[in-house]
Design brief:
Shape: globular
Distance between the termini: 28 Å
Structural class: mainly beta
Helix content: under 10%
Length: 83
């Protein structure tokens, strides 16, 4: 697997869970490439469904691993919403 750090913005996944839209920083992978979030105080977030990430994954065949309080939550790309 080839790691890739998002330089300008951290990847953010947005999903609907229990009727509410939730956005969190995330790791994203298609099994070949892993995009990792930055954890700086001034780091912005860019939706993982943004076309900037299409160049990384090529398709929407990735898994977003959203950061929770105590664990990661995995969601297929089809569950991730656009902005």
């Amino acid at each position: 697997m080839r790691p890739a750090k998002s330089r300008a913005s951290s990847p953010v996944a947005r999903i609907v869970q229990r009727g509410r839209a939730v956005s969190r920083r995330c790791f994203a992978t298609d099994g070949h490439v892993l995009v990792m979030p930055a954890f700086g105080a001034y780091t912005g977030g860019l939706n993982i469904r943004d076309r900037a990430f299409a160049a990384v994954f090529g398709t929407r065949n990735f898994t977003a691993h959203m950061l929770g309080d105590n664990r990661l939550y995995a969601f297929a790309a089809s569950r991730c919403l656009t902005d």
